[in-house]
Amino acid sequence: PGGEGAATPAPQSASGQIGVDGWAEPGGESARVAVSSPVGTDTIAFHGPRQAGIDTPAQTHAVFLAFDLRENADRDAIGRMLRLLTDDAARLTQGRATLADTEPELAAAPARLTVTFGFGPELLRRVAPDRAPAWLRPLPAFERIDELDEAYCDGDLLLQICGDDPMSIAHARRMLTKNARAFAQPRWAQTGFRAARGAHPNGTTMRNLFGQVDGTANPRPETAPSERLVWGARAQGDASEPTRLTPWIEDGTSLVLRRIRMELDTWDELDRPAKEQVIGRRLGTGAPLTGEREDDPVDLEATGPTGFPVISDVAHVRRARLDGPDAGMLRRGYNYDDAGESGLLFAAYQCDVDAQFVPVQERLAESDHLNIWTTPVGSAVFAIPPGCPEGGYIGQQLFD
Ligand code: HEM
């Protein structure tokens, strides 16, 4: 791209709300807002069999919002709330103002905004107790590592809002919180970030605040491992793929969100080779210590000249890796840097928390070199329901 940015008219967006002259009309009447292409006008489809915000290439910013249901929010009320919030999310993600939007101008540039709904145990208990997945409960305590602060734990409803522009996120957060108010009150909010859109080529694996390339060994969207590990066993064309993991509901998944503090000051006392030993991968390229390139296989058997394993017994990649076709999860975390505390909003999606997440976390709690510099301070588990078609609402399956 050259110096064409500001002068270039925005293209027609999928929602049809952005005029060909590059002006948006969020209120549909007098409000005209200049929107520059393409960061502001890009949209991610809201409607579909699966919710956006999971397989979606990660946007720059995220806020995870948890709510507590009000005592009087019964099954019917929760249904009304979900209908209302679905409508808001469908509009905002497409660059359209919500009904009775008080700041419609702020909806004009969604910048790949996504809103992903998650349900905590209490919501399922009130709506469809017989449909609640067995794994939907707080994680077991990991006493050796956890220093959990209740201010970052649990919740009945989750709204995960991601986007490339903090303005559209802030607006969505406000509209959704306002419209949820009669049914639920905010419990916690956690804000995170990644590299700015365009700072690195598309598809570059993110870096965390230790500088590590983080997310290499993830299942790629729309591949057999992703279908099996994240979205569970759906009728697949290829019967040769084992499909043992069953999702709690078709096209749904789960989210484990762990707020993990990272001690940057003591981490900085290590030299680069020591830092690379902790993970088992190089800082520069993210390549395993047994390879040259980021996507080279990790060889846990390789030994060095002195006979010791190249990737140590306590290296994070060794401890985090379980064998077998049903082992793995999708990690889509965000960095945080709030009021003197830095860390990772570790977000993992998998179709079965007990089968996929807990065994890995148990192994890491038992031994992982990284534990010296990381401390879990928040923890929450949510069921992620499927997406919905136009005219439907998120969670509808549980009301039918
Ligand atoms: C891999 C960092 C916590 C599970 C990695 C890698 C890094 C990393 C740099 C190697 C590159 C990659 O494949 O992504 C961190 C940091 C953490 C953290 C900084 C805490 C602040 C966790 C937790 C879990 C976890 C809590 C799960 C309970 C994994 C898994 C892999 C991995 C499954 C891939 C292992 C493989 O198959 O190669 N992590 N991680 N990590 N991590 Fe973590």
TrEMBL record:
Required cofactor(s): heme b
Entry's InterPro entries? Dimeric_a/b-barrel, Dyp_perox_C, Dyp_perox_N, Dyp_peroxidase, TAT_signal
Ranges where the Dyp-type peroxidase N-terminal domain occurs: 51-194
Identify the SUPFAM superfamilies for this entry: Dimeric alpha+beta barrel
Annotated GO CC locations: cytosol
Alphabetical list of Pfam families matching this protein:
Dyp_perox_C (PF20628), Dyp_perox_N (PF04261)
Taxonomy, superkingdom: Bacteria
Q: Does the keyword Transferase apply?
A: no
Which key words are in the record? Heme, Iron, Metal-binding, Oxidoreductase, Peroxidase, Signal
User: For the Dyp-type peroxidase C-terminal domain, which residue ranges apply?
Assistant: 206-388
Top enzyme class, one word, equals oxidoreductase
Respond yes or no to whether keyword Heme is given for this record.
yes
Q: E.C. number, please?
A: 1.11.1.19
**Tell me, what is one Gene Ontology molecular-function annotation carried by this entry?**
peroxidase activity
Which spans are transmembrane here?
none
**Looking at the record, which segments are called Disordered?**
1-30, 285-304
NCBIfam families, alphabetized: Dyp_perox_fam (TIGR01413)
- PANTHER family, per this entry? DEFERROCHELATASE, DEFERROCHELATASE/PEROXIDASE
What family does the database annotate? Belongs to the DyP-type peroxidase family.
Q: Can you name this protein? A: Dye decolorizing peroxidase
Give the species. Micrococcus cohnii
